[in-house]
Write a structure and sequence with these properties.
The chain has helices spanning 3-15, 20-27, 44-48, 61-73, 85-94, 132-144, 161-164, 167-172, 186-191, 214-221, 236-248; strands at residues 32-34, 39-41, 54-55, 78-81, 98-101, 106-109, 121-126, 148-152, 175-180, 198-202, 228-230. The protein is α/β, with parallel strands linked by helices. The protein folds into two domains: 3-109, no CATH class; 121-248, Rossmann fold, CATH 3.40.50. Helix 4 (61-73) packs across helix 5 (85-94) and helix 6 packs parallel to helix 11. The longest helix has 13 residues, at 3-15.
C-alpha cells in the first residue's frame, strides 16, 4: 500500500464507490503481515516512499518465493536483490510478473506502470566493465523506485578522456551514482566536475591489496571533492535508495 493507492481508496470510500467493510478488507494486511519466518512491512511505502525490498542472500529459495508472492499480492513494485540465478529462475516460473536480471543479480516485478516521479535524471557512472553487476544493481533499483535513469559505463580514470568527452551528461544529471573498484578514484574526479550530489559506490573489484573493496572504500571516504558521499562496498541498492530520495525531494 503506497500513498497514491491509499489516497484513491479513501477517495472511493468518501464518494461511496467502496464500502467501509471492503476498505477494511483491503487494509487488513497493514501495517505488517506475519509469515512466521518473516514480518512483511506493507506500511513501508507510506513511510519511506518505496515498498520493503527483499534481500535474497541468506534466505532459502522457499522463503524468497513465499515473501515475493505475498509482496506481489499486495500490489505495487517488488524488488529482490542478491538473488542467485537458480533461485531467480524458480521465482520467475512460480510468481507471475517477475523478471530476472542476471548481471545485476536481482528480480523485479513492476506492478505499477507509470511515468517516473523523480524530479530529474539519476546518472549511473561506472569505472570499468567489471563493475557492471553493482552499477546495474543501482540502475535497475533506481528505475523501479520511480526515477529516470541513464547509464555511462567504462569511463574510469585509466582513460580519463572517455569521461571528459561526455561531461555534458554529468552536468545534466540531478544525482550521480559513481561506481568504481581498484583505487576508487572516479568519484573524486566526477565530484570535481559537477555541482550535484555524488554517491560513491566502492566495489570489490581489484587485485591483492585492493582488499576486496576496502582500498576503494577508504579512497572514496578520503576524497578531496566536496559533496561526495559513500555507501558500503558493492551496495548498488543502497546508493539507488539514497539517490531516489534526493531525486524525489521533499513531499
Amino acid at each position: 500500500m503506497d500513498r497514491a493507492r491509499l489516497t484513491a481508496l479513501l477517495t472511493d470510500v468518501r464518494r461511496g464507490a467502496c464500502s467501509v467493510d471492503d476498505a477494511l478488507d483491503r487494509l487488513r494486511g497493514m501495517p505488517y503481515e506475519d509469515l512466521g519466518f518473516a514480518q512483511l512491512d506493507h506500511h513501508r511505502a507510506l513511510r519511506n516512499g518505496f515498498p520493503e525490498v527483499i534481500l535474497g542472500e541468506g534466505k532459502t529459495p522457499e522463503q524468497v518465493l513465499a515473501i515475493a508472492e505475498r509482496m506481489a499480492a499486495a500490489g505495487g513494485n517488488v524488488l529482490v536483490t542478491r538473488l542467485p540465478p537458480d533461485v531467480g529462475a524458480r521465482l520467475v516460473a512460480a510468481v507471475p510478473g517477475f523478471t530476472y536480471e542476471p548481471t545485476a543479480r536481482l528480480a523485479t516485478r513492476r506492478g505499477i506502470e507509470a511515468e517516473p516521479t523523480g524530479h530529474g535524471t539519476v546518472l549511473v557512472v561506472s569505472a570499468g566493465t567489471a563493475d557492471l553487476p553493482v552499477a546495474e544493481e543501482a540502475a535497475i533499483s533506481a528505475e523501479v523506485m520511480g526515477n529516470r535513469v541513464e547509464r555511462l559505463y567504462d569511463v574510469g580514470v585509466a582513460g580519463l578522456h572517455r569521461l571528459l568527452g561526455r561531461r555534458d551528461r554529468l552536468w545534466e544529471a540531478a544525482v550521480l551514482i559513481v561506481v568504481a573498484g581498484m583505487e576508487g578514484a572516479l568519484p573524486s574526479v566526477v565530484g570535481g566536475l559537477v555541482d550535484r550530489p555524488v554517491i560513491a559506490v566502492p566495489t570489490s573489484v581489484g587485485y591483492g591489496t585492493s582488499l576486496h573493496g576496502l582500498a576503494a572504500l577508504l579512497g572514496m571516504l578520503n576524497t578531496c571533492a566536496a559533496g561526495v558521499v559513500v555507501v558500503n562496498i558493492d551496495n548498488g541498492f543502497g546508493a539507488a535508495a539514497a539517490a531516489s530520495r534526493i531525486n524525489h525531494g521533499a513531499r
